[in-house]
Amino acid sequence: MQRKICLTKIMSSQPQASFVTRQDYLVSERAAEAKSEYYQGEVFSMGGASRRHNLIVANALVAIHDQLRQRKCEAYASDMRVKVEATGWYTYPDIVVVCDQPKFEDNAFDTLLNPSLLIEVLSPTTEAYDRGRKFEHYRKLPSLEQYVLISQDRCQLERFTRQTDGQWSLSEASDPNAMIELDAIDCRLKLSEVYNRLDFA
Question: What Å distances lie between residue 95 and 18, 31, 77, 83, 98, CA to CA?
Answer without folding.
Answer: 30, 22, 4, 14, 10
